[in-house]
Write a structure and sequence with these properties.
This protein is an all-alpha fold. The chain has 17 helices and no strands. α4 packs antiparallel against α5. It starts with a helix and ends in a 6-residue tail after the last helix. The mean pLDDT is 88.
């Protein structure tokens, strides 16, 4: 049983790896705009709606998990994702794209993502942080590993052929892998390695309604919004800041974007290890302190037009950003228990919708000021606020 759990982990890693390619949207933007004459606002809306549908999919899993198995949820998601990709090859108008890629694909990914983080870490009660980090690393690496493959298919055969390949690969791998996405039985749990600490999960199982009445929920909810939103600002705007404000080449800026993506993925496992060692409150304090320090360096880099400093600081920040994504499922379990985890996690995942506003706000600030100085100063202040939120958290473990 102890060995079998690594097969379950590897299986879910592959599912998240192939499923995460739906977020490599930038690969398809140029070909779609060239074919249909759409503008950037129309193609950007497709990705925004995809993120909204993702949150809806996580909530749907929370509801469905009370009635059907997580295996069945993954299978439903496999059909939805495959259908979404295939139907995208038939689109002629933006609203059709919003229904196929945004609604079907985004909702399917949200459903499957929630199902996996609700089940697989339970096979690793002794190292939940590391297991969760490993899973989400696969999701983060999807664009880097599979993105070039999709780009090659688009170059050789066109964007429609790429969507057909994605449809087939995702349906086959998700459906086949779904049979290992299960909650361990009581007998299986006793056969697995046990955590060293006595307090393994939350002391009480909160329903979603009970959870949103607690002080810990609001402190953590806004903490996640800040760290996720600030990280997305760096992901979206550090490249343009390096090329525009610092006068570097597009190739240099693209190299920085690639480097920070790799740091994002690697950081997910590292912070899972840290969490397992030092617990919730200390992990949150360390991450927010690093965020604030590194963002201060990013701000100085913009003021001084120091591209190398900006690149190094960006890599450090995205390394920590990966830790925020990794610890959300495990901290949700620690604070609010396991019994209602799927629904509780879907509620906390709504932070994605609010965090997604921060890159847009940063973009508006850059437009009004003509540079990124004020935008990056603002996220330094936001990050400093997250230290206060972490400090007010109770020591739960």
């Amino acid at each position: 049983m102890a060995r079998r759990r690594y097969l379950i982990l590897a299986n879910s890693f592959v599912i998240l790896l192939v499923m995460g390619i739906s977020y490599a949207w930038s690969i398809f933007v140029g070909p779609l705009e060239a074919d249909f004459g759409w503008n950037r606002a129309q193609t950007s809306m497709a990705f925004t709606l995809n993120l909204i549908a993702f949150s809806g999919g996580t909530i749907l899993t929370g509801i469905l998990s009370k009635r059907i198995s997580f295996t069945r949820i993954i299978q439903i998601g496999a059909v939805m994702l495959g259908a979404g990709f295939l139907l995208t090859t038939l689109i002629q108008t933006p609203w059709q794209l919003y229904l196929t890629y945004s609604l079907l694909c985004g909702g399917a990914v949200g459903m499957c993502y929630n199902a996996i983080v609700s089940t697989v870490p339970l096979w690793f009660l002794d190292n939940q942080g590391v297991a969760t980090g490993t899973l989400i690393m696969g999701y983060a690496f999807s664009s880097s590993i599979l993105g070039p493959v999709c780009h090659a298919i688009i170059t050789a055969q066109g964007w429609r052929a790429a969507f057909v390949v994605l449809a087939v690969v995702n349906m086959v791998i998700l459906f086949a892998g779904s049979f290992l996405v299960k909650v361990p039985t009581g007998e299986q749990l006793t056969a697995l390695p046990q955590p060293a600490k006595a307090a393994r999960l939350g002391k009480r199982d909160f329903t979603a309604g009970q959870m949103i009445k607690t002080r810990s929920f609001y402190l953590y909810f806004f903490y996640v919004i800040i760290l996720a939103g600030v990280g997305q600002v760096i992901i979206n705007h550090l490249g343009p800041a390096i090329s525009q404000d610092m006068g570097q080449s597009a190739a240099f800026a693209a190299g920085v974007v690639s480097a920070i993506s790799i740091c994002n993925g690697v950081g997910r496992v590292f912070w899972g290890i840290v969490f397992d060692k030092i617990g919730t409150k200390k992990t949150l304090l360390v991450m927010s302190a690093i965020y604030t320090l590194v963002l201060g360096l990013v701000y100085l880099a913009v003021v001084m037009k120091a591209a190398i400093l900006a690149a190094v600081a960006g890599c450090m920040l995205l390394f920590t950003y990966g830790g925020n994504a990794t610890t959300i499922p495990t901290i949700t379990r620690k604070l609010f228990g396991e019994k209602h985890f799927s629904m509780n996690y879907s509620v906390i995942s709504l932070t994605n919708l609010l965090a997604a506003l921060m890159p847009s706000i940063a973009g508006m600030m850059q437009t009004s000021q003509g540079n990124y100085t004020m935008a990056f100063l603002s996220i330094v202040i936001c990050s400093a606020l997250s230290i206060g939120l972490a400090a007010m958290m109770k020591k739960e473990d």
